[in-house]
Amino acid sequence: MTQPLRIAIAGLGTVGIGVIKMIRQNAALIEARTGRTVEITGISARSRDKDRGISLSGYNWEDNPVTLATRDDVDVFVELMGGSDGPAKAATEAALAAGKDVVTANKAMLALHGQPLAEQAEAAGQVLRFEAAVAGGIPVVKALTEGLAGNEITRVVGVMNGTCNYILTRMEATGQGYNVLFDECAQLGYLEADPNLDVGGIDAGHKLAILASIAFGTQVDFDAMELEGIQRITLEDIAQAADMGYKIKLLGVAQLTGRGLEQRMSPCLVPNTSPLGQLDGGTNMVVLEGNHVGQIVLRGAGAGEGPTASAVMSDIIDIARGTRLSTFGQPATSLTSATPARAVTPAPYYLRMKLMDKPGALAKVAAILGDCGVSIDRMRQYDHDDEAAPVLIVTHKTTRADIDAALAAFATTDVVHGAPVTLRIEEL
Amino acid sequence: MTQPLRIAIAGLGTVGIGVIKMIRQNAALIEARTGRTVEITGISARSRDKDRGISLSGYNWEDNPVTLATRDDVDVFVELMGGSDGPAKAATEAALAAGKDVVTANKAMLALHGQPLAEQAEAAGQVLRFEAAVAGGIPVVKALTEGLAGNEITRVVGVMNGTCNYILTRMEATGQGYNVLFDECAQLGYLEADPNLDVGGIDAGHKLAILASIAFGTQVDFDAMELEGIQRITLEDIAQAADMGYKIKLLGVAQLTGRGLEQRMSPCLVPNTSPLGQLDGGTNMVVLEGNHVGQIVLRGAGAGEGPTASAVMSDIIDIARGTRLSTFGQPATSLTSATPARAVTPAPYYLRMKLMDKPGALAKVAAILGDCGVSIDRMRQYDHDDEAAPVLIVTHKTTRADIDAALAAFATTDVVHGAPVTLRIEEL
């Protein structure tokens, strides 16, 4: 019989407790599948006394996660504290330096410090695994790193923040506005301590940056991501998108072209008949496209105790079975530094603006779009309210630069009221 | 630099040629991701002279796949000949005996001989991998064996034969009958040489039997599967299912309960709003349910050159990276022999029958159902054509045994014309 795999868990929130429950409940099958037992030799969290619903008295307690990470009786350090820096990063570095493998669910730490951590792990001959950092229970890191490893990945697309998708689908279903549903999410505990991590797209952006690194063999580069949250989406946008056969999703898109690496996390329109368009509520979905496999769609719970613990366990079991992979699917020192490219891939765009009630206003808008090389696919003008009329435009495929030029030109006229809402239409 | 991984490919049909193209086209990234090159040191097929669209002159040719499988300069034997027995099995056994790893896309061979082959591989310290045997490009074997390995799997559900799904969705979309679309598939080359493998559910059943073994730690047992094809599905069934909010799919379901292992591949109704209900055309979908992860849905191309080659490459790359797993996710000698259980899990059923135009006919049917413990959720009687009236019944949850008792009782009456169509409604 192989030796037990000894793990230490730092962070006893939802996910940490979920991992402990899973190891207890599924111990027999984990042993059958790995040929060894998984033993928890130590735990750590901010508060020792908090009631976490299960007994933790059987485990060695360490107040300091760094001390836990470097104990002699630990093979794998499981980092579930969160936070891009501070104790999570210090303990991860200490664990790697002490010759431990590390499993983490920490998307922020990987998105911001993934490259040096991967280099440290690989130089030390240790593995750093993070299935739980992206899309909860969906085994998407594994699918991308291993399952599609023979492919050149052409695009990664995903809805990876359940709270945003919940708000957007509830807006459509109930006719309640963004602010009402934001408050509901706050009450339900669906929001991060800093809600901008969710609704500002940052949390989902961290996940996309990690996937982009694996997909394209590039160093993780969250700072280069175009980020836009869902705060400006109105019921009007949702209704009008639905009218034209689209849904609005906080969509992550990453692709590598000759012009560089595009990474964006922003509200987009997707066809309502597409798998992403049919994704309601808090569920996550990731679409992976490869040059031989075509399109693979993965769907599942993106958060929560059980699903996230399942992803953590997948990494622990891989280590128990002896599977040793590079952090981002190829040696960290071979990852390239890609030039960021701002949305250069042409796409149709949706524009919603308010036109002042002046003669020739619509003609002026149309002329500006034409001058900027943006051609109109569909346009609707609705009834005036007060002195402004809502106008909705769907363009043919165009570049973001041409759209931006048109937006700048609108601002110099006296016919467009305020800043137009501009959403990319992502074709899938 | 690590040594090249030397592979031999037996079988140069669509998939074999796809693998060669992929190795050529993506050589640089495969090397980056594995740290070594993948070299084809030999090939074999039935006909050497056939034009396969690419030049094969650079590879050693062997007429006999067994000779190819045992060459000294081969590390991995890639079996893409197909057929459950004959040369595929002989060459696989020879490769394992000669100390080679084996990668295969052969679902029939694994469904019928997976247990002895796995035992042979593991006794020899070799790996036998088969991602391409199930659902083409979808990395479902990996998701189940590794991604969800910490879970007790509670159910596996899937649409895993693209041809059947194509026929069923085209019947609904075009109003053309089964026979017309069967002929269309034959012309398009969508059917196996023995079409019953497709429309009879056998091919999809092979895939389900393989997944069931991994999911439940049981020896693969295709012979115990309940099999029913799509040949009896009529436009009427499809229209009436749609009327009630369902789609008809050739659905595989495997679950292990206290009463044994249920495995069925049969036409079922699924809610048209569920991911499976929304699956149109030749695409495959597999739903995996685990006791912590909840429901994971995987979707992608289930066949074709690129997708199937992608799955073969995933296995080759795992081997190149040094990943060594048990064939079915735990040692073959530890797999249990499950008692087959015939559809004991209760479910609602759909019944379509023709009632003779006699007084009290409907009352008699209702009475029989009641006597058998089957309660009716919804019932519709349509206009008479000739002397029989179509009647459609959706039951509340009931067992297959109670349904069968009712069907037997109907046959003893003179009011039900012919054998009723009986389809299970699978809740997802």
Quick recap:
Chain A has 14 helices and 16 strands. By secondary structure, chain A is of the alpha/beta class.
What would you give as the CATH superfamily of the largest domain in chain A? Dihydrodipicolinate Reductase, domain 2
Largest interface: A-B, 61 and 61 residues
Strand content of chain A: 15-25%
Main sheet attributes: strand count, strand direction, barrel closure of chain A: 10 strands, mixed
Mean pLDDT of chain A, to the nearest integer, reads 95
How much helix, percentage-wise, in residues of chain A? 25-40%
- How many helices of chain A does DSSP assign? 14
CATH class of the largest domain in chain A: Alpha Beta
What is the CATH architecture term of the largest domain in chain A? 2-Layer Sandwich
Structural class determined from secondary elements of chain A: alpha/beta
User: The CATH topology of the largest domain in chain A is what?
Assistant: Dihydrodipicolinate Reductase, domain 2
- Number of DSSP strand runs of chain A: 16
